[in-house]
Amino acid sequence: MSDLICDDSTRMIKTLKEIRGAKRQGMGLRDPETMLEVWVTVRNGDWVIVQNYANGTSCIVAMGEKWEGSLTNPA
Description:
Blueprint: E1 5-8, H1 9-19, E2 22-31, E3 34-41, E4 47-53, E5 57-64
Antiparallel strand pairs: 1-5, 2-3, 3-4, 4-5
């Protein structure tokens, strides 16, 4: 993907929560240095997959719309 959107992890989370109104729906380790998270905007079903690196950088690696899944226990 040539147009990755990367930022400081703290700033990325703030943007997802406060500007997009997204809630983290799941996360998992990709490897010891990398974690993937799925964020969903409840009001419209838009979703974002964020890859977090141990160095404090996060990148949006995929996004889409019409998420279907359980919205129980949002972070």
